[in-house]
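Exercise 7. Given the encoded structure of a 250-residue chain, write a plausible sequence.
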């Protein structure tokens, strides 16, 4: 039997509100039966802090931060969870359906491609373990829950969040590749211990390697083929309309 075909949207760098609008649009389209399952990777330009959909409290000074001369954008995700600082990270998003009704089982099914891909790059990851106490920590990377992936010595590399609509799921997550430790400390008031990556390249080369390896892992884990297809002008039009409705702005 032939593998099903998912869309792979090439790497996009854009503002947080645009990235969140794209993820929301992809979920809406998939749910309406107008769009195939999709995998994409993206970066946030300028640096941003994303708040979980239900997160109502955050420090006032977050609205006045800057990094490298640019204001840090404060944006709301359509998914749950707590605040994530997006700087030096690579975000993945999976929009698909048919993962069953258990939220945690769906997380773990989707996360398999991350575990397998990072293992192929020389880094073993496992699921984090935290009780409900994490709810009181505004920083997503301050604790690791069963939906997060940590190194064997407990350093968190990937934090994920999920949004379900019927049978359709949007799961997206941040992989901290080259974080600015000083900015992290300024935002969250705690020290960040960056994961020592087993890869020698940095910057764009590092991102390209990670995307290639994880895309190949997704094909194996989900038993799919990926078809590269950038967003069309028409799709951009719909997405930018969604961005203007202030849903993702703080």
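Solution.
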């Amino acid at each position: 039997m032939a593998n099903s075909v998912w869309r792979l949207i090439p790497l996009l760098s854009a503002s947080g509100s645009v990235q969140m609008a794209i993820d929301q649009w992809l979920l809406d389209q998939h749910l309406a039966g107008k769009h195939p399952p999709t995998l994409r990777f993206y970066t946030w330009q300028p640096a941003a802090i994303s708040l979980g959909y239900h997160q109502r409290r955050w420090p006032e000074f977050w609205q006045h931060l800057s990094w490298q001369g640019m204001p840090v954008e404060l944006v709301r995700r359509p998914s749950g969870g707590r605040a994530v600082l997006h700087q030096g990270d690579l975000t993945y998003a999976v929009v698909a359906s048919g993962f069953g009704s258990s939220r945690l089982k769906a997380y773990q099914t989707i996360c398999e491609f991350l575990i397998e891909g990072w293992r192929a790059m020389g880094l073993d990851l496992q699921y984090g373990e935290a009780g409900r106490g994490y709810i009181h920590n505004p920083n997503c990377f301050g604790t690791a829950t069963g939906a997060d992936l940590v190194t064997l010595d407990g350093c968190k590399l990937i934090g994920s969040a999920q949004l379900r609509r019927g049978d359709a799921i949007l799961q997206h997550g941040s992989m901290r590749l080259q974080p600015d430790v000083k900015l992290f400390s300024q935002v969250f008031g705690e020290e960040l211990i960056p994961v020592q990556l087993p890869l020698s390249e940095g910057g764009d080369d590092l991102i390209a390697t990670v995307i290639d390896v994880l895309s190949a892992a997704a094909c194996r884990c989900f038993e799919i083929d990926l078809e590269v297809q950038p967003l069309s002008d028409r799709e951009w039009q719909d997405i930018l309309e969604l961005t203007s409705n202030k849903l993702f702005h703080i």
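Remark. The CA atoms of residues 100 and 199 lie 35 Å apart. Students should compare their own answers with the one above.
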